[in-house]
Amino acid sequence: MFPIAYHPIYKHPVPENHRFPMEKYELLPQQLLFEGIVSEEHFFQPTEIDTNTVCLVHDSDYVNRYMNLQLTAKEIRKTGFIHNAQLVQRERIIAQGTLTGALKAIENSGIAFNIAGGTHHAFSNYGEGFCMLNDQAIAAAYLLKHHLVSKVLIVDLDVHQGNGTAEIFSNNPNVFTFSMHGKTNYPFKKEQSSLDIALENNTTDAEYLQLLTQHLEPIIAAEKPDFIFYQAGVDILTTDKLGKLNCSINGCKQRDILVFSLAKKYHIPIQCSMGGGYSPDLRTILQAHVNTFKAARDLLI
Fold this sequence. Notes:
By secondary structure, this protein is α/β, with parallel strands linked by helices. 45% of the residues lie in helices and 12% in strands. The chain has one domain (4-300): Histone deacetylase domain (Arginase, Chain A), CATH 3.40.800. Strand 7, helix 9 and strand 8 form a beta-alpha-beta unit. Helix 1 (16-34) packs parallel to helix 10 (282-300) and helix 5 packs across helix 6.
């Protein structure tokens, strides 16, 4: 079965206005265990990532000021978070969880998960949109630097464009960034990914899955990646407060099945970070995230 990075820091108190989006990270492991999808031995608790690894993709001045709580008020407002030591620790643990998961996926030629992660709005020299350190970008750069892979594909299917990821790898031919996102959604100023598919409001399951099928396998066949990072945000759901699309729970699951099936078909290890999800009913968010794990489990049986 697959390794899963879990972050006990989410059990610590957080500001009330951040509580709801954070709550899923605490409840998701419990739900996976309750439904018998995984067992306790599948979880691992990552440590804090080291600064040198973070600086593979992030500007050292930004990283040092971020970690020493020296960001400006303007920079802090852009992230949407309260800047404190607990937040810095949380981001470093998330990033290490994705990196460790990627290494485990390579070792086992399989799939690894991060209960959190998918912080794709973090740019090389600043954070925004509740993202301070770009976990999948950091892990991708580490794998390339240490010659563990030669070509990385980042598949970002969160409803929001992976703008930070696109900026970080804009001049790196060894990373192909694919983002399929809401055309009129945040970020309103888009960056240029290797390939961007901008979706109209109210895009349905059929339209969504047709576009994903049309583009993803040809990318894999042409680019021949030896590792995939998958940002599996569930904010594509019609119930999502921030999404603007019209995808169902089943459509979201079919999306995950398609991504994992192609990774299996081409024998490519894959690391999956859970990304966003903002439906009013927390049960909807949990169900959609649980389905991502079910899709992976069913392919491994």
